[in-house]
Write a structure and sequence with these properties.
Layout (H helix, E strand, L loop, with lengths): L4 E10 L3 E9 L6 E8 L2 E6 L5 E9 L4 E5 L2 E3 L6 H13 L1 E2 L6 E6 L10 E6 L3 E2 L11 E6 L3 H6 L6 H13 L3
Parallel strand pairs: 4-10
Antiparallel strand pairs: 1-2, 2-3, 4-7, 5-6, 5-12, 8-11, 9-10
Length: 179
């Protein structure tokens, strides 16, 4: 199969966080039509693990899906910001833990809605977290806890962890563990 032809786009809505375009596309062997394209800023996230083999998680409510679940620190990469620097900034703002952007290891990359969205998520692994302050973004979590890595697969299976960026990063960490 070959690439789709893009004939142009027209903006429908735009804000600092999201924009929506209608894009005129033509799949191979098909007629041209308008397809929705959601444009989102890239997201950087961190799986922070400690020496006791525990992962730092945040318990929070997501109004869009009306769900409660455990998540990893993550957020939008600001214009011109380095991915690792954004990831380290998000950890500090959301949890009060400081991690070195230079010591972050890339753990996972995904495009969660590739068929209609430009979203790109990069997850890093950090092992050097030090609590230095209270979280600045106090609205981000109702609880921040260290949870044993051995519980993570069960938590995903039981839908206690559902956010795509968290599931992706945590499953990658579990897949890379020595058996």
């Amino acid at each position: 199969m070959s690439e789709w032809t893009v004939h142009g786009a027209r903006p429908v809505y735009s804000s600092p966080w999201v924009s929506l375009d209608l894009v005129a596309v033509e799949p191979p062997g098909r007629e041209r039509y308008e397809h929705h394209l959601i444009k989102l800023a890239p997201v950087a996230a961190v799986v922070l693990i400690n020496d006791a083999d525990e992962v730092l998680l945040m318990w929070r409510h997501r109004f869009a899906t009306d769900t409660w679940s455990w998540e990893i620190p993550s957020g939008i990469v600001e214009e011109g910001e380095d991915l690792a620097a954004a990831a380290a900034r998000e950890v500090l703002e959301e949890t009060g833990y400081c991690v070195s952007a230079k010591s972050l290891e890339r753990l996972a990359y995904n495009q969660p809605i590739g068929g209609m969205c430009t979203a790109e998520h990069t997850v890093f692994l950090a092992r050097d977290g030090v609590r230095v302050a209270d979280p600045v973004d106090t609205h981000e979590a109702d609880a921040i806890e260290w949870r044993p890595l051995d519980q993570i697969q069960r938590m995903i299976d039981d839908r206690e962890i559902v956010a795509g960026v968290a599931v992706t990063g945590l499953l990658q960490l579990l897949a890379r563990r020595p058996r």
